[in-house]
Design goal:
alpha/beta, 6-stranded parallel β-sheet, 5-stranded mixed β-sheet, globular, binds NADP nicotinamide-adenine-dinucleotide phosphate
């Protein structure tokens, strides 16, 4: 049977460490977990079984392995130290027999987005960013439909627009919406992005380093590499949709508490074909995975054992190709989730009603 492995790491330190080591998660605080993670070796998490292509019936099996660094630790430590730990984790995957290796969350963000890691390993590597882009854009367009926001007139924003995932999401959204804010911390790469995007098109492209412009945006796709939340309740327009692809999240938990007139959805949740059992709870309902995991699995089902999405410049062609491969084998955009909970049609209707009420009172 063909095989794959996927590298995960703690994102919310206490919650995620508790999932594998309940006692350590209880007794250590976040700072202690950050500190001790430096000395932890790579950790075997679980075997993944039951994945079956709906096109060919081919089955693959895989493993979760963990690089025990938190996002904060990965940003604080020298890049070469972080690479070393990720490569050690990749070596564990090789010893298990993996033929394809996916880099989860910050292991794909750090440094040159997988290029150095792939060079140091024998197993082919992918970041999963191409299918993450595809699913994030599908998710926000689908959510717009549920909220009755016509794309062709929509004011939209991509936060983290100059990043690896953000720039291609911006390119795709610019084909459909009326105005697109390109938001980030530094103006120069945003202005460069505006120049590089195909045009002049119907869509007005507006670079901005100010979160205030979110108050004019009906659709927001956010995908920064910030380790703190960047989108707060006061930034948002009643009735808007926010698709949060970032891990750790970009949207403050305060939004869920204070703004019942906004639809916040997690970007990147996918249905996996076959009776999959991950033997590990990474926070999704059974049978669902992150899009970046799905890219790794889809490549294994397709038998494409080669370095795939690597580096900071992902192409549209790569996004289209992996979308076709994943859809062929039965991966699909899953239902919506928001802050670890399922989004029901009733919830969407309540958001719409609350947005109308709020608009009447402002
Ligand atoms: N859901 C999934 O399946 C999935 C899959 C893969 C990755 N991800 C997540 O996606 C996120 C982005 O990944 P990436 O590879 O695109 O990262 P990246 O290439 O490093 O890009 C991140 C972007 O965020 C911007 N940024 C960082 N901090 C910011 C802040 N405080 N305010 C505004 N902008 C900020 C950066 O701008 P500067 O240029 O100014 O630094 C950069 O443009 C990460 O959180 C990652 O974990 C999710």
């Amino acid at each position: 049977m063909d095989t794959f492995a996927f590298i995960i790491h703690p994102i919310d330190p206490k919650r995620d460490v508790s999932r594998k080591f309940p006692l350590l998660g209880r007794v250590l605080n976040e700072r202690q977990i950050d500190f001790f993670s430096t000395f932890f070796p790579p950790i075997y998490i679980s075997e993944i079984e039951g994945i079956t292509s709906s096109a060919t019936g081919k089955q693959v099996k895989g493993w979760f392995v963990a690089a025990p660094y938190t996002p904060r630790r990965m940003l604080e430590l020298p890049e070469r130290v972080v690479y070393r730990k990720i490569v050690q984790t990749g070596r564990m995957a090789e010893r298990l027999g993996a033929q394809m290796l996916g880099l989860g969350a910050f292991t794909s963000v750090i440094g040159d987005a997988g290029v150095t890691i792939a060079r140091s390993l024998d197993v082919p590597v992918t970041t999963g960013d191409a299918y993450t882009i595809s699913i994030a854009v599908q998710a926000i367009c689908e959510a717009a439909r549920f909220m009755d926001i016509p794309l062709c007139n929509a004011m939209a924003a991509v936060v983290g627009a100059s990043g690896t995932i953000g720039r291609v999401c911006a390119e795709l959204l610019a084909e459909d919406v009326a105005r697109l804010y390109l938001i980030g911390r530094r103006e120069e790469p945003l202005v460069d992005l505006r120049e590089q995007l195909p045009g002049p098109g119907r869509c007005e492209l507006v670079p901005s380093t100010k979160m205030d412009v979110l108050s004019e945006s009906q659709l927001i796709l956010t995908v920064t590499s910030s380790i703190h939340d960047v989108i707060k309740p006061e930034h948002l327009l009643p009735g808007s949709v926010v698709c949060d692809v970032a891990r750790p999240r970009d949207v403050s938990a305060m939004v869920a508490a204070a703004r019942d007139d906004i639809l916040v959805i997690d970007g990147g949740m996918v249905d996996v074909p076959g009776p999959v059992d991950f033997h590990f709870n990474f926070g999704f309902p059974p049978g669902k995975s992150y899009a970046c995991m799905a890219e790794t699995i889809a490549l294994a089902l397709e038998g494409r054992f080669e370095d795939y999405t690597l580096g900071k410049h992902v192409t549209r062609e790569r996004v289209d190709e992996i979308t076709a491969i994943a859809e062929k084998h039965g991966f699909r955009l899953s239902g919506f989730r928001s802050f670890e909970r399922e989004v029901t049609l009733q919830h969407i209707e309540t958001v719409r009603q609350n947005a109308r009420k709020r608009a009447r009172h402002t």
